[in-house]
Write a structure and sequence with these properties.
128 residues; mainly alpha
């Protein structure tokens, strides 16, 4: 296995662990409230936390700081909008955890975040 491939796998692992903490353990009440509203300080903080933690992951695997910063800024913007779309859908559908539609929306949300990580790895491979 090449060193580049090892770095990619390590980065993917770090992004997965980061996602667990930023999406589940480090969310504050402000981040959790009013998810359907577009202009939302809590969601901006949440997306910023994701971007900052991703930047640490990129730097740990030796990515150039400028390239890593651009990639992670794009992730923050994507994360903000993915979460807004899920929040808006949840508010409009009115479905809760006891309904299948809620879990389908949750699954799509998580898939979009995972595909964002694939795009981030691709961007590093191409521009890093």
């Amino acid at each position: 296995m090449t060193t580049e491939m090892q770095a990619m796998l390590l980065l993917l692992t770090l992004l997965q662990v980061k996602h667990l903490f930023a999406d589940y353990f480090l969310q504050t009440q402000r981040m959790l409230r009013d998810k359907a509203r577009y202009v939302h300080v809590g969601r901006a903080q949440h997306a910023g936390l994701h971007a900052a933690m991703s930047l640490v992951a990129f730097l740990l695997v030796g990515a150039a700081p400028a390239v890593a910063a651009v990639i992670c800024l794009a992730e923050g913007v994507a994360h903000f909008h993915i979460d807004w779309l899920k929040g808006r859908h949840g508010a409009r559908s009115g479905q809760g955890p006891d309904q299948a539609g809620y879990w389908r929306a949750f699954g799509v949300d998580q898939l979009m975040h995972q595909l964002t990580y694939v795009a981030m790895l691709w961007a590093w491979l191409v521009w890093g």
